[in-house]
Every structure is written in structure tokens, then in C-alpha cells.
Design goal:
With 333 residues, the chain is an alpha+beta fold. It is 44% helix and 13% strand. Helix 10 packs antiparallel against helix 11. 36% of the residues are buried.
């Protein structure tokens, strides 16, 4: 319970939105332990020659944009080329890798045309991970792009993604190649996402990450229609790039960002990594529904701010914010 809007939001961010610090520390320790276990697989029992130097912590947990509850942690595990090469000019999402002829694991995962089959690579990781202690089961995710490793005594899982790292291409860029879900590989570079978020957060006084987490919480509140997490994060990143400063008050930051979401969810949203182009693949119907959802809650946010700043009625304001964020938002009193 809270008697001012600022107190209500402080409690909401601490108790409901932000990850619990103890859980975050525990998760990082667990992640490091898993990486140590995977390192022991290196080039043993006909497994891949691993390349620890380009393991990548990626996803919202690594970018510090994940809100409660912690459900998964993403890891990319580097595989040494061992003589493998790739076709630079293939489409970004269906890149072929000519498999190594000397590494036994790659040979075992080679298709009849000599290319490395990412599905077979993932299955080989899955089989190996099944023998790691502290983890109750492993399975391939629905997209066929990662091994999901579930823990015995924790609420979160790990998404393990095998990857290769390319040389610099003709345009001077290099990429990570990860499974595309259909046996091929696709280009990505999560370091660009991480560095871009960190940069804009620093430029705007450390107020971006908290904003992203709050909007993600709002997105989860009404589950009938939600914006995919990475798309929403990119929208908010684009919004922050248009700002020279963000309010010190999280409720005002949220209100203004919600208007941007409402005005832009129906438009193309470009991949900040400049790899895959438009990432807004929502149907026209979903775009309209989500736009209306954001517009409706933006109007309520404006009313809540007016109750607080003009009417000096914190009870009405807190109640209105509760309509937006649901029953987990603190009540007045």
C-alpha cells in the first residue's frame, strides 16, 4: 500500500517489475557453472571443438531488460571452425556451412551435400547436456533453434544455442551463425543489441533499462494480445533515440513511451542490427488490437497524471494506474 504515486511506483518496480537481486545473483552463478560444465565437453568423446572466446551471453537477461519472473537465460556456445567454411552471399536466414572434414562431431552432423546440418548439431548438444548434473531434462525449443535445459531446483531454464563466428565480410562486418530451425544457419550479432542498449541508457541518465522493464510488465498484464518481447524492446529503443532526455519520474516516462508504441506498432520496425530488415511481423489485426490497447492505456495514464499533478489526488491517481497495471499495482492506503 502507498499514499503517493512515487511511493507506489517505487514499490511496484522493486517488488513486481525488477528481478530480485538475490535471484539474479543466483542465476548468474548457475549460468557460470553451466558454462564451466560445457567447457569440459571440448573435443572429447567425438564432441565439437569448442571456442570459449566467443561464447555470448545474449537475450534480455544479459541486456538487463528482463522483468519478473525470470524464466529463461540465453547462451550462445562457440564452436571452432576446424576447417569449416560458410557461403558469405547466402541469404542471412538460410546460410550454408561447408562442414569440417577433420572434426568427428561435424562429420557426424554433415548432410549429403557436405553442409553442416544445424538440427543435427543441436541434437548432439542435447544428448551431451542430458548428462550434466543439476539439470532435470533437455529438449529442443519449438523453433528448433536451441536446446532448452531445465534445472532441478530453479524456476528458470537455459536456452543453449550453438554458434560459429565468421571472418569479416566484404563490407567489414562479421557475424555469428546460429541454427535457423530448418537445418541451416542464420546470421546474427547480439553484441550490437547489448552495446546499443547500454549506450542509449548511459546517454539518457540510466533511465532506459527501467523504462523497458516497466513497459514489458505492462505488456504482460493483459495477455490476450501482447507484443513480442524483442519487437517491443526495439520499439522502445527507437523511441529513446528520439529523446534528448527522459523524465526522472518513471510514470511520466511510461506515459510518453506508451504513446510512441501506440503510434508505431502498426509500422515497420527495423532490426537494429541491420541484418534482417523489418521485424514487425504481426498481422494487421494484431497491430490494430495492440494499437488500441496502447492508446486506451495512454489515455488512462494521462488521467492518472492529471489526478496527481492537477487535482493533487493521489488516491485517484493510484487507482487509475491500477487499472493499467492490474492487481499487482499497490493500492492506496
Amino acid at each position: 500500500m502507498a499514499t503517493t504515486v512515487n511511493t507506489a511506483f517505487s514499490e511496484f518496480m522493486k517488488d513486481i517489475v525488477n528481478l530480485d537481486p538475490d535471484i539474479t545473483k543466483n542465476a548468474r552463478d548457475s549460468r557460470d557453472n553451466l558454462l564451466a560444465n560445457i567447457t569440459e565437453f571440448d573435443d572429447k568423446d567425438d564432441f565439437f571443438d569448442l571456442c570459449e572466446s566467443f561464447n555470448v551471453h545474449f537475450g534480455s537477461f544479459a541486456r538487463r531488460t528482463k522483468c519478473r519472473e525470470l524464466d529463461d537465460i540465453d547462451l550462445m556456445i562457440g564452436i571452432a571452425a576446424s576447417g569449416a567454411s560458410y557461403f558469405e552471399y547466402d541469404p542471412w536466414d538460410s546460410t550454408r556451412i561447408a562442414a569440417s572434414k577433420t572434426n568427428a562431431a561435424q562429420v557426424a552432423c554433415t548432410s549429403s551435400d557436405g553442409t553442416l546440418n544445424s538440427t543435427l548439431v543441436i541434437n548432439k548438444f542435447k544428448k551431451k547436456l542430458e548428462n550434466v548434473r543439476e539439470y532435470k531434462r533437455s529438449e529442443i525449443n519449438k523453433r528448433g533453434e536451441a536446446v532448452v535445459l531445465n534445472l532441478i531446483s530453479k524456476d528458470w531454464s537455459f536456452d543453449i544455442v550453438p554458434c560459429f563466428h565468421t571472418v569479416k565480410e566484404s563490407d567489414g562486418r562479421d557475424f555469428y551463425l546460429i541454427p535457423n530451425g530448418s537445418g541451416g544457419w542464420k546470421k546474427t550479432d547480439p553484441n550490437i543489441d547489448r552495446d546499443a542498449i547500454q549506450s542509449i541508457n548511459t546517454q539518457l541518465g540510466g533511465r532506459v533499462l527501467e523504462l523497458i522493464r516497466l513497459v514489458k510488465r505492462w505488456n504482460k498484464t493483459k495477455r490476450a494480445y501482447t507484443i513480442p518481447s524483442y519487437l517491443l524492446e526495439t520499439l522502445l529503443f527507437d523511441y529513446c533515440k528520439t529523446q534528448t532526455e527522459l523524465s526522472q519520474y518513471i510514470d511520466l516516462r511510461f506515459r510518453d513511451a506508451l504513446l510512441y508504441v501506440a503510434n508505431n506498432i502498426g509500422k515497420d520496425v527495423l532490426d537494429p542490427k541491420n541484418i534482417q530488415g523489418n521485424i514487425n511481423t504481426l498481422s494487421n489485426y494484431d497491430k490494430i488490437v495492440l494499437q488500441l490497447k496502447a492508446e486506451t492505456d495512454y489515455t488512462k495514464a494521462c488521467e492518472a497524471v492529471a489526478f496527481e499533478t492537477k487535482d493533487k489526488d493521489h488516491q485517484k491517481s493510484i487507482n487509475k494506474w491500477g487499472e493499467i497495471f492490474g492487481q499487482d499495482f499497490p493500492t492506496y492506503g
